[in-house]
Amino acid sequence: MAQPDSRPRALYIDWLEVYALEPITSDPRDADYFRARGYVVHEREYGTRVFSQVFMLEDNYGQPFIEVRRAAYQSTDSRLGFMPTNGVHLRMTNNQLYTANPIQKLRDFMVANDYELVKLHRLDIALDFERFDFGDDPARFIERYMKGKYAKVNQANIAAHGVDTWAGRVWNSLSWGNPKSMISTKMYCKSMELEQVHDKPYIKLAWFDDKLIDSPVNMTKRDTDGHVYKPVIWRIEFSIKSSANMWYVIERADKPHSRQPMPHVLSTYDTREKLLIAFASLQRHYFFFRKYQPDVRKDRCEEKRLFNFRLDDQLMKLQQHGAVSQRTTQLDRLLNYLRLFLVMYNDPDAYKAANIVIDYLEQQKLRTMITTEADYAHVQALRRLIRERLEGYTDKPITTHYRELVDLFTSPDAPF
Fold first, then answer.
1. Of 251, 245, 247, nearest in space to 262 by CA
2. Nearest-angstrom CA–CA distance, 407 and 113
3. Most buried of 23, 113, 128, 214, CB within 10 angstroms?
4. How far apart are CA 138 and CA 140, in angstroms?
5. Which run of H or of E encompasses 126?
6. pTM value?
């Protein structure tokens, strides 16, 4: 039997939305309320079928932070359901979910503004990987599954997306379950989506942090022999809807054919270890396959082993990728953010100026001087300066912005 390998995998929350109540005895939590408290607010000109007001708040560094949906339409149509006048939906923006502790950020925001949490409306858990733990290539696995070599346990409804060629059909996305059901499952090629549909630099940086790639600019890495190649990154994603109503059912790993409830609350997902336990539990129930055998009941067919989570002894720890200090990791993020920016925006002045900063980081040996706190401030300052340039917040040349960033590194008053 094949043994599990140690290939890196990366685990994220990809959607986080809660249903909450805003206080009714104080100021309404509308766009003006948040502007008065220093937030930059972007209001949408139109609402949704349920809410008349939709707006997005920026964080302290000019990045999308939280989308607020409030002021529900009141209707007597029972098909639309009932929403109290102070009911709101709060959704963390996608870029925030790839930073540290997104659930804690949401909690802090709710506490600061007196929101009362009612329940999770939707939460998606995503695992990104190059190969399954026992070596299977995801594309070949899908090909064999579509040919009937394997049978999936639970969620019989399937939808597929791919390309039909003379050489054969190539599948790049499969989904199981009704999208409106309590839990739906999806497996798709995430690196293809980033290249062909919607590029998300923050996901590339997250992959760099988790060792799925060595370069977020070129999307490449080196194999064990040192050869550079472009990995194909796949994603398995579970989307858990509000119909879970604080609980859903999973298989028990220690007792076959037995089930147990899993709490669908924020505390189930608020650390990476607990998030992995939740993913592994969902995988056991909703991404579980058996090898097809003619005239044999599905539950008696041999299991197709893909992951090695070992739920029975609760050894649910994320793989360690070496003793890399937080200081070095943050600094590498800054360097790669600079390089990624140079590729994304063809600006000769920006190219020259960004290379000034790269030179300071790599050649002036500031790596040994920068503290974690100062390093994080530099990353956020860079993102703010880039955003100001791209969205026309200021007329100052981008070279001036970068010179300001260089001054941040070299100032005698710098915090390092």
1. 247
2. 36
3. 128
4. 5
5. strand 116-129
6. 0.76
| pLDDT at 334 (0 to 100) | 60
| 234: three-class secondary structure by DSSP | strand
Q: How far apart are the first and last CA of the chain?
A: 53
Cα Dmax for the chain:
78
Q: Tokens standing for 224?
A: 């064990």
- Contact predicate 232/191, CB 8 Å: yes
Select from 71, 137, 150, 67 the least CA-distant residue to 109: 67
Are residues 13 and 99 in contact, defined by beta-carbon separation less than 8 angstroms?
no
Kindly calculate the radius of gyration of the chain based on its CA atoms and give it in whole angstroms: 24
Q: Distances in Å between the alpha carbon of 4 and those of 151, 221, 235, 391? A: 22, 21, 18, 48
Phi first, then psi, for residue 347 (nearest 5°) are -130, 110
What 3-state DSSP class applies to 225?
coil
Of 128, 57, 121, residue with least CA distance to 95: 57
Q: Is the pLDDT of residue 57 over 80?
A: yes
Mean pLDDT computed over every residue of the chain = 78
Cβ atoms 183, 241 nearer than 8 A: yes
pLDDT band at residue 83 using 50, 70 and 90 as cut-offs: confident
128, 234 in Cβ contact below 8 A?
A: yes
Q: Is the pLDDT confidence value at 319 over 50? A: no
Which pLDDT score, from 0 to 100, does residue 342 have? 58
Distance CA 244, CA 223 (A): 42
Each as own residue / partner, the long-range contacts of residues 411-416 (CB below 8 Å, 24 or more positions apart, any chain) are: 414/374, 415/371, 415/373, 415/374, 415/377, 416/369, 416/370, 416/371, 416/374
307: nearest Cα among 315, 295, 297: 315
* CA trace torsion 130, 150, 248, 187 (10° rounding): 30
